[in-house]
Amino acid sequence: MIVNDRLTSYLHSLDSRESEIIEAIGREARADRVPIIRQETGSLLKVLLKMNKPQRILEIGTAVAYSAILMSECLEPGATITTVEKYEKRIPIARENIRRAGKEDCITLIEGDALEVMAGLEPGYDFIFMDAAKGQYIHFFDDVLRLLAEGGILVSDNVLQDGDIIEPHYAVTRRNRTIHKRMREYLYELTHNENLTTAVLPVGDGVTVSVKKEQQEKE
Ligand code: SAM
Question: For 70-80, what is each residue's pLDDT tens digit?
């Protein structure tokens, strides 16, 4: 927890309720210990989507489609979400949840490893939500940048590792050291890459919001 518990509870108390289907899928996911976005991350996503009105959204890491369905409720008519998941056990549950939510026309679930799936996708996504294995974000980076349209938004979740990101390498448990190193590389890339403007926010477990620069901004 990177934000004080009491403050987080207070912020949650201010949030308006989600739709019935989102509440139900969220309850089921938490009961089954499926990792889903935190409430405050959901609120941030909704605001960004309402502000930017993207037409083509890509999500890396579907789990049971909680965040995909939540995002789908904030879209303009005609907008679509492509979401990628590799964990076979979660895929039928995600498909069933998309059906329950009546979002089959809007959400396309692609099964497979994100690295392989992204290699076959065409550029032009105006919103990408990265929420898969944290240690792999840096490996996804080149493809994500290729797929993101100029002026498009990249949101990456869980980037501050419950605060561990500020610890020196030796103070992190051995098991988490590789992720720690790769996440630091990823944050450095997001904040120093000439194609992006990035804010790192202590929201939920840490979220970055990046905008891909337009060509003329770089000249
Ligand atoms: N976005 C979801 C939500 O909030 O409802 C939660 C996603 S969960 C944190 C991360 C998901 O990414 C897991 O279900 C995991 O199986 C999937 N994942 C991890 N690495 C992946 C990869 N290389 N390709 C595709 N999916 C991956």
Answer: 999 999 999 99
Residue partners of 197: CB distance under 8 A and separation at least 6: 210, 211, 213
Residue found by looking up tokens 């103070």 in the block: 171
- Separation CA 26–CA 38 (nearest Å): 10
* Type of residue numbered 139: H
**If DSSP codes are grouped into helix, strand and coil, which group holds residue 37?**
coil
How far is it, in rounded angstroms, from Cα 193 to Cα 141? 11
- Kindly report the three-state secondary structure assignment for every residue of 80-118: EEEEEECCCCHHHHHHHHHHHCCCCCCEEEEECCHHHHH
Provide CB contacts within 8 A for 178, sequence distance 6+: 135
Taking the CA of residue 158 as reference, the ligand 1 atom at the shortest distance is 9
- Residues enclosing ligand 1, CB less than 6 A? 35-37, 61, 63, 66-67, 84-87, 90, 113-114, 131-133, 136
Helix 90-100, helix 20-31: angle, nearest 10:
160
pLDDT band at 1 (very low <50, low <70, confident <90, very high): low
